[in-house]
Specification:
118 residues; single chain; 57% helix
Length: 118
């Protein structure tokens, strides 16, 4: 759960790097929360109001962690725009997000896995 909270603490931090576990755990937890809220919306008959509020609330942290994950693979955050291309763009982004980090320091900072524990 700390992966999720850590990303929310860095709400709009687009600089630096995000490790694979940080990105994927945030994405997984966010997806599960979104699904649970969608079910609650259906049960309460509220349409998609609660889920939409949550999705808007985590939009900026999601974009920030996505950009930091691209930085970890030594790519610019502008690569996120390739996701606008239907199907192919999303596949390319998933491959980039799943790629191994550059072990050495890059233009975006130190490898997050080599940073000492808090």
């Amino acid at each position: 759960m700390h992966w999720y909270v850590d990303v929310l603490k860095k709400y709009a931090t687009f600089s630096g790097r995000a490790s694979r576990p940080e990105f994927w755990m945030f994405t997984l937890i966010s997806l599960v929360v979104s699904i649970v809220l969608a079910v609650i919306d259906v049960l309460l008959g509220t349409g998609i109001i609660i889920e939409t509020v949550y999705d808007v609330a985590v939009l900026l942290p999601s974009l920030a962690v996505s950009v930091r994950r691209l930085h970890d693979t030594d790519r610019s955050g502008w690569w996120l725009l390739i996701g606008l291309i239907p199907i192919v763009g999303l596949i390319v982004l998933i491959v980039f997000w799943a790629a191994a980090a550059k072990p050495q320091e890059n233009a975006y900072g130190t490898n997050p896995q080599k940073v000492p524990a808090r």
